[in-house]
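Practice problem: predict the structure.
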Amino acid sequence: MQLKPLQDRIVAKKEQPEKTTKSGILLGVAEEAPAYAVVESVGPDVKTVKPGDKIITKNYSSTDVKLGDTDYIIVKEEDVLATL
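Answer:
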């Protein structure tokens, strides 16, 4: 099943935050930490991001969807904070 976003929505695959640094130090996870995701598809009204972009969004501004073993988010374009 393929998710097809409408209007100014973006479908992105969630990425889990790093739990350790390269040197092995354990990192804590902040409750209000931003969410990282890779854009899978965009709606017809989206102008600033494209599939394949890595984005940062506010944690509570998206809708979580699970298809199979993959976690996706659906977010409005205006709730994307930055691209990497």
